[in-house]
Amino acid sequence: MALYEHVFLARQDISAQQVDALVEQYKGVLEANGGKVGRVENWGLKSLTYRINKNRKAHYVLMDIDAPAPAVHEVERQMRINEDVLRYMTIAVEKHEDGPSAMMQKRDRDDRPRRDGDDRGPRREFGDRPPRGDREDRPRRPREDRA
């Protein structure tokens, strides 16, 4: 049997319990067709980059699947029929990753660079700035008065 990672997006106006019911429904379809589901990660309600069918947010779910191709095709067919599923994507993988996926890993905020790219430390006030040498060394031109 082949290994797959399957991600689907469910509508924003269904509850978390209904999302879990969708997962159980598709898990049952896979198991009925000779497959099995490993880990299931619910990534929660996230904003979409662009609107899909007038939805601005969606429930994201990842499933690790070990199933024959006809079982995966059947799940995809049922997702096309279901109005609660906005998008889905199935990818064949060599092996499933151990531990949480990249979306579920908690990143430490101190490890990331600052958003504005400034890693010099606290900001200085303008009064702390030393005078610029090039302005004081240069002779000044006389101003012409315009009448």
Map the helices and strands.
Elements: E1 2-11, H1 16-32, E2 36-52, E3 55-67, H2 69-81, E4 85-93, H3 133-137
Antiparallel strand pairs: 1-3, 1-4, 2-3
Helix pairs in contact: 1-2
Short description:
The chain is of the alpha+beta class and 147 residues long. It has helices at 16-32, 69-81, 133-137; strands at 2-11, 36-52, 55-67, 85-93.
Q: What does this molecule look like?
A:
The protein has helices at residues 16-32, 69-81, 133-137; strands at residues 2-11, 36-52, 55-67, 85-93. The chain is an alpha+beta fold. A hairpin with a 2-residue loop joins strand 2 and strand 3 (55-67). Helix 1 packs antiparallel against helix 2. The chain is elongated.
Number of strands: 4
Largest sheet: 4 strands, antiparallel
Order of SSEs, N→C?
A: EHEEHEH
What structural class do you assign from the helix and strand content?
Answer: alpha+beta
Helix percent reads 10-25%
Report the average pLDDT across residues.
84
- Given the structure, what is the number of helices? 3
Question: Widest sheet: strand order?
Answer: 2-3-1-4
- Radius of gyration in whole Å, from Cα? 28 Å
Question: Which labels suit this protein?
Answer:
alpha+beta; 3 helices; 147 residues; single chain
